[in-house]
Amino acid sequence: MQYRSLGKSGLKVSAISLGSWLTLGHKMGADVAVRSVRRAFELGVNLFDTANMYDEGQAEIVLGKALAPIQRQQYVLATKAYFPVGPGPNDRGLSRKHIFEQVHLSLRRLGTDYVDLFQCHRYDDETPLDETLRAIDDLIAQGKVLYGGVSVWSAANIADAMKLARELGLRRLVSNQPQYHILRRDIETNGVLDVCAREGLGLLVYSPLARGVLTGKYTSVEDVPSDSRAADAHGRQFMGPWFSAEGLQVVQSLKQIAETAGLSLPEMALAWCLRRPEVSSAIIGATKVEHVEQNAAAAEITLGDDVLAAIDQIAPA
User: Are 203 and 178 in contact (CB under 8 A)?
Assistant: First the structure.
């Protein structure tokens, strides 16, 4: 496994990390989830990502149980908050109240005294930015959070946060978690990649396999494996425009490029994300232990210029 610095921080994270959205506590049985997490750790994965609202908190509970036998200093634990977790007016957002309450609830569910990384799951237009940044800074001062970051923020939001943190003398954010894969490259053109590189935020990219589309296992939107995400109405709604006749045609062309290079499509897709020095880790999702084993090896793959050029021809930015 390859390890990279999380932005300009001193924290080292595995190039391949394991997420829990739509998997732990949802798609996977608890026993498979535990085996997947522990197998990932055996293969060198040290970053495990979750959020307070994944499967209404069950993902954190399952992840905490899976990690319990492992020495706490051996892994990096990341969680997030922003989305509604209840009916009340303060059960959402990035207010000081919501952040403090949700971090403490996450710690309880995860069975730990601290999380290595707390990320703001989205930008909150209804809360002053300084309130959010001060809340994270106070949690870091208390030792309940070690680093702060964001997820799916615009380039302007990120720039504003970094500037304000400097002006207020607060600890700097170290990460951004955007969606990024061969079929979705908007962070290359909308300024997000540039501002993260300039400000020293490491990218923890999610859905690097386009939520399963870039595994190559789908050849038709009608004919899908019964145990796949596409067979599940809840899972299919998150698969985006790539799960279409046109999208799957592009995927088949990408699969041919991978095969010519002697790679599987998932290996090529993950290595493609990791080609960027700004990317600290690619977060994979897994519903089977074999998925973890197959994807972990991608950290050691370097794509040639000819392969990258061929991918750009099929799926340009």
Answer: yes
CATH architecture of the domain 3-210+274-300 equals Alpha-Beta Barrel (3.20)
CA distances from 143 to 110, 138, 174, 252 (A): 16, 9, 16, 48
Q: Where are the domains of the chain?
A: 3-210+274-300
How many helices (H) and strands (E) would you count in the chain?
11, 10
Angstrom distance (rounded) from CA 228 to CA 168: 48
Residue 118 three-state SS: strand
pLDDT digit string, tens, across residues 167-177 = 999 999 999 99
> Do residues 280 and 202 lie in contact, with contact meaning Cβ atoms separated by under 8 Å?
yes
Q: What is the pLDDT of residues 215-245, one digit of tens each?
A: 988 776 666 665 555 546 555 566 677 778 7
pTM score, two decimals?
A: 0.92
| Catalytic machinery residues | 54
Residue 80 identity: K
